[in-house]
Structure formats: structure tokens, C-alpha cells
Design a protein that fits this description.
With 244 residues, the protein is of the alpha/beta class. 38% of the residues lie in helices and 15% in strands. The strands form 2 sheets. It has a 7-stranded parallel beta sheet. A 3-stranded antiparallel beta sheet has the order 1-10-9, covered by helices on one side.
């Protein structure tokens, strides 16, 4: 973070991914997991939807009824699975129950017109992943998004990620520090970037170390509730474990 311009924070709020449910058994397992998160003071989640609309509505309804006062819902993520019409129909059903900070990947990637139509149809910010600054400019020019999802380990370059954060600030768009759900090695790099840039406007999705049973670092990334602590060791901040 010192090399990227100096740290602006020592921790970043994070959110836990609740993966897509397809049946009642999936909902029961997901509900049990959320109960565990609440017990550990983890109070921010994002929900992957877009499989079965009735199942999506049921899981949102159940979680909101049980934990809606204690949980922050970061986003509904459609993962580019639905066309614009079904996307609007699904999101209207879910937004009527529980409103997130934003929605993400609302139509197949590349459908800029469809993305703009969904954005105009819903009173909620829209986010999308971008591979490079040229894609960001195309989305901005098409009035397709409000928020840029910057994933350093996905775009393949620290420099590209820094370009995206800087350009988003100049264009007046907000940013999310995103991830490919890596172990503590990749997550450490993401958090160093998140410590250095000012415009991390939403909870990060850099939660990979909590999703794995083992980790290839001597000390994994530390979380206190939903706060991910920026590692302070040499380099990226974590020490690889040779035996792991």
C-alpha cells in the first residue's frame, strides 16, 4: 500500500457471498450459514440470484424476515444470466421485499442497451465488472452503470486496477473492490490496493479466506466481524507457508 501511494485505511468492510439456491434444501443450508455468520458478528452479505425466481423470492423473504434488521444486503448479483425482461421482472419481485445497496451483472455482458434499460427501469444503482478502461468508458457513455466493479486478480494487472479506480473517480462513478475469491495470497494483494485508493465506496467482496478449509499462508487474512484487516507484513503483507 505504501508503494501504491500510501494507505488510507487499516481495514475494509467486507460482505459474504450467499450462493444461488435452486431448491428448498439449498435454502435451508444457506439459512443455517447465515445464522453462523450472525453469531460471529458478520453483518453484510450479497446474494446470487437468477436461477429459479420462486426460489429466489423465498430465500430473500425468509432471510429478510429473520435477519433483515441485523444484516446489510450489499447486492443482488445476477451473474449475467438473464436477459433484460426477466431481469427486471425478478429484481422488481426481490426489491419489493428487501432493497440492497445495488444490483450487479443484470444482463448478458456486452448488452449495453439492455443494461441501460434495466438501469432506467429500476430505482437502484447498477454495477458491472470491467476488464479494462476502454470497457469502462463504453459503459459510461451508454449510461449503463452507476458503479464499477474492479477485480485486481481478474483484470490481471495492478496498474490496470489503479487506472480503473482513477478513471471511475474522474467520471463520477463509484467503485467496488472485487475479487475472484482467492486464498490469502490473492486477497492480500486486493486489500493492499483497497488500502491505497480512496474510492472504495461499498463493502468489498474479498472474502475468499473465509470460504476455504485451509490456506497457503502462515497467518491467513484476519476478519473481525465483517471488517477485513489490511495485512501489515512485508510485500503483500502475508507470509506463504512452504508446507501448505
Amino acid at each position: 500500500a505504501e508503494l501504491f501511494g500510501g494507505p488510507t485505511r487499516t481495514s475494509i468492510r467486507s460482505c459474504y457471498p450467499l450462493f444461488r439456491c435452486m431448491n428448498d434444501d439449498d435454502i435451508d443450508r444457506l439459512e443455517s450459514r447465515v445464522d453462523e455468520l450472525i453469531e460471529h458478528d458478520f453483518d453484510c452479505v450479497r446474494m446470487y440470484v437468477g436461477g429459479d425466481p420462486d426460489v429466489d423470492e423465498e430465500v430473500v423473504r425468509r432471510l429478510h424476515a429473520k435477519h433483515g434488521q441485523r444484516l446489510t444486503l450489499q447486492a443482488y448479483d445476477l451473474s449475467n444470466k438473464l436477459d433484460r425482461g426477466p431481469a427486471v421482472a425478478l429484481l422488481r419481485r426481490l426489491l419489493a421485499i428487501w432493497e440492497p445497496m445495488y444490483v450487479e451483472s443484470v444482463v448478458p455482458f456486452g448488452d449495453l442497451r439492455g443494461m441501460a434499460q434495466v438501469r432506467n427501469a429500476l430505482n437502484v444503482p447498477v454495477s458491472e465488472h470491467v476488464g479494462n478502461v476502454d470497457e469502462m468508458l463504453e459503459l459510461w457513455q451508454a449510461d449503463a452503470i452507476d458503479i464499477v466493479n474492479v477485480a485486481p486478480t481478474s483484470v490481471g494487472s495492478i496498474r490496470e486496477a489503479l487506472y480503473q479506480f482513477r478513471l471511475a473517480d474522474q467520471l463520477g462513478m463509484r467503485c467496488i473492490l472485487s475479487t475472484t475469491q482467492g486464498t490469502s495470497l490473492a486477497t492480500a494483494l486486493e486489500l493492499q490496493l483497497g488500502a491505497a485508493v480512496v474510492n472504495v465506496d461499498f463493502p468489498t467482496v474479498s472474502i475468499g479466506p473465509l470460504l476455504y478449509q485451509t490456506d497457503p499462508c502462515v497467518e491467513p487474512i484476519r476478519y473481525t466481524g465483517a471488517m477485513a484487516h489490511i495485512p501489515t507484513g512485508p510485500g503483500w503483507g502475508v507470509e506463504p507457508d512452504p508446507e501448505a
